[in-house]
Design goal:
Layout lengths: L1 H21 L16 H19 L2 H18 L3 H19 L2 H19 L2 H19 L2 H19 L2 H19 L2 H19 L2 H18 L3 H18 L3 H19 L2 H18 L3 H18 L3 H19 L2 H19 L5 H11 L6 E2 L6 E2 L4 E3 L10 H7 L11 E3 H8 L19 H4 L3 H7 L2 E9 L6 E11 L2 H7 L10 E5 L10 E5 L1 H14 L14 H8 L1 H8 L16 H14 L19 E4 L16 H5 L21 H9 L10 H19 L14 H4 L1
Helix pairs in contact: 21-23, 24-25, 28-29
């Protein structure tokens, strides 16, 4: 109440001051009708009132009462709209003025942020805030313009963000991981497939979309089919798919009915029937050009007719029909005349006896006129035309593509075509790899020039096995034959190379007799050899071809230095044929000491000549021939226990030491088939080697004899015998 009185008094004084300022004075002295309150009175009143209020506010009850009165007063005062508006305006202006200070503004933001964070620690508050914000966004998005602007803004923000390659890459990885994790759930995966299928179906309802999709797919397939390998793989895949599908009897029956109906509808047109007959006739003629096709067709027709003629009624009807056909045909005089001429020529040919030797020889020569020049693309054998047929890859749909590519190695025959032998075609048609195919470990290495240039005796010097065989000339025709057994003798190339005389010239020749034993008069080989060629060949086998069978062979590369250190005078005489003043040394100046040096030189080198000028028949002079028996005092090895005897006996034919008979293979091949494949190979290195042919013959015969051996036992009565009774 005191506060209200005080406020009323203040209001009265303000109104009095306003009136005193606004009233006009009536007289010249400008005196007013009312007099103002003295200043001392107002100051005194304020001081007394302040002292009294201070005493009262020291009491807690008065302070609480005053606060309650002020609150009620403000509440009653704010019920007036004009007061509320003026208060809001005043507060707003005060806040604006306060926020102009950046420090106060920053402190206010920090305080508000901290307040919101503390408030959001309560989960209920966060949940309510999220619900309120979600509802506000939903209400805001009801407006289509707001949604459109929001989409444009988000799209632009994503585009700007994706300009960074790292952001795009991270986004792709995140999306890929999310999709992968999502698709692990079978239900989600199924729903996604259904959704995608439905989306594509809805999209394809538009004819323009379907047409564009068909054009795009057609162009992609055409571009892909430009590659011959793609076309071939597609044909093989489609053929296999059709065959697998036709295993079902219902599918075959439906397909036959559908094709039969389509052909019937197509044949209703006379032009269509005529064109089909012409096309089929031409196709059958072209197909029958192949002798194998004609032969198979004749056999098939013969079997069908034979089975058909077992029925007596069908046989009788066929005879009647054929008789009537021949009668109708013979009504033409030209046909009768041709038939009479044909029968006359046939009777004349039948009267000629073809037992004459000249006719049989001519028939044989006609059959072998072309010779074995046709190469099989699978086994690489040289065969006659009757043993091969033209390659058709569509017949091998049962084979795996990787196995098929390893079996077929493109080799053209002299006529420029690819052929395959009947044996390989039969095996590959069943889906199996032929056991004689090059893909079954029967390939060949390229022979280096250093190995291909060796003669028979030089090949013996680089081998680690010598298949000793006695070759004799047959009385008629002078063809060679092997007499007796073939013995497998182990030798070492280092020992052979150490026996040969070493001379500085790489073109030097040495005549060597290869014997079974030094004391024998006979010999196995008598040929001139080149020591430098032998050393180069061993170097090629060990270091270039990396033959594992020659990895432990040691070669002396410093023999020239050692020879020069051992006898420098002899080495200088071997390398220099002239004196220091480049004048030839005449025979008149040669004394006895030089003759002794020449004899010593001849003893060391094996040849008493400085050049290749030798006597006409060098074999008649035993002093110029090196006798060598590498297998003397060596214990022979069995061919059955010596797995790599073939590669060690003929290293110039197997330079890498691979593709021998003992090599592991996916398809087992017999020894006879193996040697046949090698000798008939289009690479004629085996067919031109006489020793290899006789070696193969002996190994096959020994194998057949070994396989034919058997032990038969008969069970009898058990008896006790002594050694004397057994004798």
């Amino acid at each position: 109440m005191d506060r209200r009185k005080k406020e009323t008094e203040r209001k009265r004084k303000r109104e009095a001051r306003k009136k005193s300022k606004t009233t006009t004075e009536k007289d010249s002295g400008q005196s007013s009708e009312t007099k103002d309150i003295p200043v001392w009175y107002e100051a005194y009143f304020k001081s007394q009132n302040a002292a009294r209020m201070q005493r009262l506010r020291s009491q807690s009850e008065f302070r609480d009462k005053e606060r309650l009165q002020d609150a009620n007063y403000k509440r009653e005062k704010r019920k007036r709209s004009d007061f509320r508006d003026s208060e809001q305006f005043r507060d707003t202006e005060a806040k604006r003025t306060k926020r102009d200070d950046p420090i106060l503004k920053q402190n206010e933001q920090i305080k508000n942020t901290l307040f919101r964070k503390n408030k959001r620690t309560d989960p209920q508050v966060r949940q309510n805030e999220q619900l309120r914000d979600t509802k506000a966004r939903k209400d805001k998005r009801q407006d289509s313009n707001v949604r459109q602007n929001e989409q444009l803004r988000d799209t632009k923000a994503r585009k700007d963000k994706r300009q960074d390659s790292n952001v795009r890459q991270n986004e792709q990885l995140r999306d890929a991981d999310a999709k992968r994790a999502k698709r692990d759930d079978p239900i989600l995966k199924q729903n996604e497939q259904i959704k995608n299928t439905q989306f594509r179906k809805n999209k394809r309802t538009d004819p323009q979309v379907r047409q564009n999709e068909q054009l795009r797919d057609t162009k992609a397939r055409k571009d892909k089919r430009q590659d011959s390998n793609v076309r071939q793989n597609e044909q093989l895949r489609d053929t296999k798919a059709r065959k697998d599908k036709r295993q079902d009897s219902n599918v075959r029956q439906n397909e036959q009915l559908r094709d039969t109906k389509a052909r019937k509808d197509k044949r209703q047109d006379s032009n269509g029937r005529q064109n089909e007959q012409l096309r089929d006739t031409k196709a059958r003629k072209d197909k029958r050009q192949d002798s194998n096709v004609r032969q198979n067709e004749q056999l098939r027709n013969a079997d069908a007719k034979r089975a058909k003629r077992d029925d007596p009624i069908l046989k009788q009807n066929e005879q009647i029909k054929n008789t009537q056909f021949r009668k109708n045909k013979r009504t033409d005089p030209q046909v009768r005349q041709n038939e009479q001429l044909r029968d006359t020529n046939a009777r004349r040919r039948s009267r000629i006896t073809p037992s004459s030797e000249e006719m049989l020889i001519s028939i044989f020569q006609k059959k072998i006129m072309e010779g074995p020049t046709f190469v099989c693309v699978s086994c690489h054998r040289l065969l006659y035309r009757s043993s091969v047929c033209i390659l058709n890859r569509e017949r091998f749909v049962k084979m795996d593509l990787d196995v098929l590519s390893s079996c077929i190695v493109s080799v053209l025959s002299p006529d420029g075509k690819e052929y395959i032998c009947n044996a390989c075609q039969t095996a590959m048609s069943k889906g199996n790899m032929p056991n004689i195919s090059v893909g079954n470990g029967l390939d060949l290495d390229d022979v280096p020039t250093e190995l291909a240039d060796l003669n028979s005796l030089e090949a013996v010097f680089i081998s680690r096995r010598i298949p000793f065989m006695k070759l004799i000339a047959l009385p008629r025709g002078k063809q060679k034959s092997v007499h007796g057994c073939v013995v497998n003798i182990p030798i070492e190339p280092e020992q052979n190379l150490s026996v040969l005389p070493r001379v500085p010239s790489p073109d030097s020749l040495i005549t060597v007799k290869l014997k079974r034993k030094i004391q024998y008069r006979g010999h196995v080989f008598l040929q001139n050899i080149r020591p430098q060629k032998i050393e180069n060949a061993l170097h090629i086998l060990k270091n270039v071809m990396n033959n594992p069978l020659y990895s432990n062979v040691t070669l002396n590369q410093n023999w020239a230095t050692e020879a020069q250190q051992n006898d420098a005078n002899l080495w200088n005489r071997l390398t220099n044929q002239y004196s220091d003043d480049n004048e030839p040394i005449s025979d008149d100046n040669v004394d006895d000491s030089e003759v002794e040096e020449e004899d010593e030189r001849s003893r060391l080198s094996g040849l008493p000549f400085n050049s290749c000028i030798q006597s006409k028949d060098i074999s008649t002079d035993t002093n110029l021939i090196l006798n060598y028996a590498p297998g003397e005092n060596k214990r022979p090895k069995s061919f059955h226990t010596d797995e790599h005897s073939k590669e060690l006996s003929f290293p110039h034919l197997f330079p890498s030491g691979k593709f021998g008979f003992s090599m592991p293979r996916s398809q087992k091949v017999s020894m006879k088939k193996y040697f046949q494949t090698r000798i008939l190979n289009n690479d004629t290195r085996f067919a031109r080697n006489i020793e290899y042919i006789f070696y193969a013959q002996y190994r096959c015969e020994a194998k057949e004899i070994q396989d034919s051996l058997s032990i038969s036992l008969r069970k009898g009565k058990q008896m006790e015998l002594t050694a004397g009774e057994i004798r």
